[in-house]
Amino acid sequence: MTLVEINFDGLVGPSHNYAGLSLGNLAATAHAGEISYPRAAALQGLAKMQGNMELGLPQGFFLPLPRPNHRFLTQIAADGNTDHGLIAAAWSASSMWTANAATVSPGPDTRDGRCHLTTANLVTMPHRYQEWPDTARQLRLAFADEAHFAVHDPVPACFGDEGAANHMRMCRTHGDAGLEIFVYGRRGGPFPARQHEQASRIVARAHGLNPDAVLFVEQNPDAITAGAFHNDVVAVANERVLFTHELAFADPEGTYAAIREKMPEAEIVIVPASAVSLQEAIRTYLFNAQLLTLPTGEIALVIPMEAHESPTVRGWLDNMLAGNGPIRRVIPVDVKQSMANGGGPACLRLRVVADPQAVDPRFLLTPAKVQTIASVVEEWWPAQIDPATLGSTTLEHEVATARLRLIEALDLADLA
After folding, report:
1. Cβ(161)–Cβ(128) under 8 Å?
2. The sheet that has 115-119: what strands, in order across it?
3. Judging by DSSP bridges, how do beta strands 241-245 and 267-271 pair with one another?
C-alpha cells in the first residue's frame, strides 16, 4: 500500500454568491451584496487543481452540494416572510471550502490503521451547519472502502467543530506516523471562536490517536478578533514544517516547545508581526496557502495572488527564498472569486493521506476530467449572480440544472 497526500478541492458551485453570511469573515462581509461570478470562480478553482496535478501531485475533487437546500428551507419553515439572509443561507456555495468538510487522521496515526474522517458540524454559522449531511454522504462515497477508511458523523452540536481548518499534521513523510495538532478558540472580541476544545478532543478519541502524538493548542484571541476565524488563516503545516504568523497562538513559545519536544526534527518558520502585520497577513491570506511537498522533495507554498501582489508580503517571501529555509518555492494562483468570499487556496482543499487505489476513482482528477468539468462549467454555470435574486425560481432552475449536468458528465448519479 502506497500512502500519499491527496488534496481534494471543492469545485465552486453554480450558486456561488456574496450574501455576506459569515460573521467574523472580513472578506465576506466587505463584499456582501456584490455581484459574484460563479463560472469564473469554478474555472479559477479548477485551474488551481490542474496546476497542482501538473506539478506531479495527486489531486481529487468534491462536487457542489444541492442548492438551494430544500431540506434546510423546510426545517426553518421558510415562507414569504422569512428573512432574506436565511433564504440566502440555503443557496450558499460555501461547501467549496473543503478544509471545513472534515478532520482527517491518516492510517499511520490511528489505532486501527485506517484513515479516519470526522465530518465537521459547522454549527456556528447556519449557512454552514446545513452542509454536513450532504458532505458526509459524499465522503462515504469517495472513501467507501472500509478496509482503508472510517467516516464518522459529526461530534455533538453543542461542541462546534470546523474540521481541518483548525487541524494540522506534522511528520517526517506523509506515510509516517505524525503529530496531530488541534487548534481551538476561547474568545475573539466581537467574533465567535468557532472551534471548541472538546470537539477537538472528541475527534482525537474517535480517531484512536495516540495521546502522546497529539497537541491541543489555543488560538490567539487577538487573531480571531482580527479576522482569523479559522487557524488556517494564520498557520499551515506540512511534514516537518510549520509556517506560522508570530501571533497565531495564545502561547506561541509554549506551542513551539511542545512541538519540538514531540518532534525534534520540526522546522518552524515564523513570520514576525514587525515584518508582516496580522492585519496584512489576514487581508492577503498569506497563511491560507497550500504547503506542499513536490515529487522532487522540495517544499512549495501555493499562495493567493493577493499575497503575491502585497509589497510587504512579497518582500518577506523574497527574503525567505534567498535564505536557506525549508520552503524553496512560492507559487501564486488566482482564486480571486473565492478570496472575495473569504477563502484562499488552503480553504479550497481537504488533505487526505491514503492509497489512491483505495479511493473511488470518480473523485480523482485526470487531464480528461479537467476538460470535462471545464466544458460543463462553461456551458451551464451562471455567468453572474446578484444576491438579491436568491430565491428566484429562474435562478433555482439554472443552478439545479448546472449541477445535474456535472453529475451526469462525471457518472456520479449517486449524488443526484
Report:
1. no
2. 102-105, 115-119, 149-152
3. parallel
- What is the rounded average pLDDT of the residues 21-39? 86
Is residue 267 within 8 A of residue 328, CB to CB? The reply is no
> Does residue 226 contact residue 234 with C-beta atoms inside 8 Å?
no
Strand pairing category for 327-333 and 299-304: parallel
- pLDDT per residue over 211-220, tens digit each? 999 999 999 9
Reading the block at residue 104, the C-alpha cell is: 482527517
- Check if the beta carbon of residue 240 is closer than 8 Å to that of residue 168: no
167 annotated active-site: no
What span, in angstroms and rounded, lies between the C-alpha atoms of 233 and 238? 15
Known catalytic membership, residue 162: yes
Q: Is the pLDDT of residue 298 over 80?
A: yes
Q: Is 171 a catalytic residue?
A: no
Residues 298, 302: Cα–Cα separation, whole Å: 13
Find cell 435562478 and name the residue.
395
DSSP codes joined into one string, 128-164: HHTTHHHHHHHHHHHT--TTTEEEEPPPPTTS---GG
Helix and strand tally (H, E) in the chain?
15, 15
Q: How many residues does the chain have?
A: 416
Mean pLDDT of the chain: 96
Q: Give the 3-state secondary structure of residue 57.
A: coil
Give the per-residue pLDDT at 20.
83
Tens digits of per-residue pLDDT, 306-359? 999 999 999 999 999 999 899 999 999 999 999 999 899 999 999 999 999 999
Q: Which of 131, 162, 239, 280 is catalytic?
A: 162
pLDDT at 188: 64
Region 78-84 average pLDDT: 92
- Give the model's pLDDT for residue 28: 78
Q: Which three cell numbers stand for residue 188?
A: 475573539
Q: How confident is the model at residue 24 (pLDDT cuts 50, 70, 90)?
A: confident
Q: What architecture does CATH give domain 4-415? A: 5-stranded Propeller (3.75)
Residue of 116, 167, 230, 245 marked catalytic: 230
Q: What's the CA gap between 58 and 54, in Å, rounded?
A: 9
